[in-house]
Design a protein that fits this description.
The chain is of the alpha+beta class. About 20% of the residues lie in helices and about 35% in strands. It has 2 domains: about 25-250, Catalase core domain (Catalase HpII,  Chain A, domain 1, Beta Barrel), CATH 2.40.180.10; about 260-415, Alpha-D-Glucose-1,6-Bisphosphate, Chain A, domain 4, CATH 3.30.530. It has helices at about 1-25, 60, 230-245, 260-265, 285-295, 300-305, 385-390, 395-415; strands spanning about 40-50, 65-75, 85-95, 120-130, 150, 155-160, 160-170, 180-190, 195-205, 225-230, 275-285, 305-315, 325-330, 335-345, 350-355, 360-370, 375-385. The longest helix has 25 residues, at about 1-25. The protein is elongated, with a radius of gyration of 27 Å.
């Protein structure tokens, strides 16, 4: 038995370190949250009916009561909504008799006057899995929560042995989860046993639906009477620690609000020289014709290499701080993001910050030199944050230059063809 425990310990320890290495790699692309990058904050109430007939062995689960809950719903990989993803629901359960205000979605809930003395909030994480055996131990991508079942995947240790927790949707609000109340049934089961209903969870979004900064710690904040198995802790703790570590400075996004940080020019330290990769081409069209193409945001997917479609364009484009919302990549592996104008001189120059996370962000400068019936067009570009910034400059410059030479060819063809011109 001792030898078997040592083998299990070694396996789970090695797997935990492997997951931690993966998380550190993901943080290069997602400095804040390597997985579950975007979420929806929810609040609500968990009503426990208890399990008097057959106790689970976890005090909190076996006792009837009402808990206040702050939750975060998210998609693990962060794939587009049209693609299946591992769904996640993180709960912070506070044993309070008071309602959770909408303001609590931005911070950890605090116990009110009705809270049990000395009771601490508990964090419980659920992910989309199967419901029957062996699916309840397998992560399963889902399109949405309508037909999804969520479990803790790994069991807690109670007085009567291992216990899994599960959630199943009973009723959904019309439209998105932010549009009404989401009702779920709470269940528990032995790893190989049937599910037993033991409560009800009701969640709703706040008055200003959006993500929340709350960080959940299921290893440190456990329900009363529940413990984490040593093998599960060895498997999960290294990746949690890696997720919370500060990201390398090169990939940290600016925290100051507004466009000031992103608009700074990337220069070579100590010299003030622009370090951007630069290509130029002499067009057979006047500058006015070229600018008409550039000024029409809906045309960008036609000449910008890598842009597969344009989803929306601000009415103010191409004025400063205006955005166009684009997708990059080949279907179905496309990434939705945006490009923002950081500086503009109509008819002469345009500076942009183009985003394509998890690949990163790039600074782009387009300048037009009017030469009568001709125009010299120059594109300067370089990565400013994300994985691309970590690539050595002598490697990334040729790639950027090759792409932008093709971009200039496409832009000239559209200018010659009259794209972007106003119809009479």
């Amino acid at each position: 038995m001792t030898q078997q425990l040592r083998v299990v310990s070694a396996i789970t320890g090695s797997a935990g370190q492997a997951f931690a290495a993966l998380f550190r790699l993901l943080k290069l692309a997602r400095p804040e949250r390597p997985i579950h990058p975007r979420g929806l904050g929810l609040a609500g109430e968990l009503t426990r009916t208890g399990s008097p007939a057959e106790p689970s062995g976890i005090d909190w689960l076996d006792s009837p009561g009402t808990d206040q809950v702050v939750a975060r719903f998210s998609r693990s990989v962060g794939l587009p909504q049209a693609l299946p993803d591992i769904l996640g629901l993180a709960l912070r359960i506070s044993p309070s008799g008071d309602a959770v205000p909408d303001a609590a979605l931005g911070a950890a809930p605090t116990a009110g006057p009705g809270a049990a003395a000395g009771a601490n909030p508990a964090d419980v994480l659920f992910a989309s899995t199967g419901w029957k055996l062996p699916g309840r131990f397998l992560l399963m991508p889902r399109l949405d929560v309508a037909g999804a079942t969520l479990t803790t995947l790994m069991p807690y240790r109670g007085r009567r042995g291992p216990v899994l927790l599960g959630l199943r949707t009973r009723n959904l609000p019309p439209g998105s989860l932010a549009s009404g109340e989401w009702e779920l049934g709470l269940y528990w089961a032995k790893p190989g046993g049937p599910w037993r209903e033991c409560g009800e969870l009701r969640l709703h979004a706040g008055t200003d639906p959006g993500d929340i900064p709350l960080r959940f710690d299921p290893l440190g904040n456990q329900p009363p009477g529940a413990r984490t198995y040593g093998w599960a802790r060895r498997l999960r703790k290294p990746s949690y620690r890696a997720a919370r570590r500060p990201a390398p400075p090169a990939v940290v996004r600016p925290k100051e609000p507004g466009p000031a940080a992103a608009a700074r020019k990337e220069t070579t330290p100590g010299t003030g020289r622009n370090s951007m990769s630069t290509v130029s081409q002499l067009f057979t069209s006047p500058a006015a014709d070229v600018w008409r193409v550039i000024a029409d945001g809906w045309l960008y997917s036609g000449w910008v290499v890598g842009a597969s479609r344009i989803r929306d364009v601000d009415a103010e484009w191409p004025q400063q701080d205006a955005r166009l919302h684009h997708s990059v990549g080949a279907w179905p592996l496309v990434i939705d993001d945006s490009t923002r104008v950081t500086a503009v001189e109509p008819g002469r120059s345009l500076e942009l910050v183009a985003r394509g996370w998890p690949m990163g962000e790039a600074k782009v400068e387009i300048t037009l030199e009017d030469r009568g019936d001709q125009c010299l067009v120059t594109i300067a570009e370089d990565a400013i944050r994300g994985p691309g910034k970590l690539m050595p400059k002598f490697l990334r410059d040729p790639l950027i230059s090759a792409r932008n030479r093709e971009t200039l060819r496409r832009l000239e063809l559209m200018a010659v063809g009259g794209a972007g011109k106003q119809k009479p």
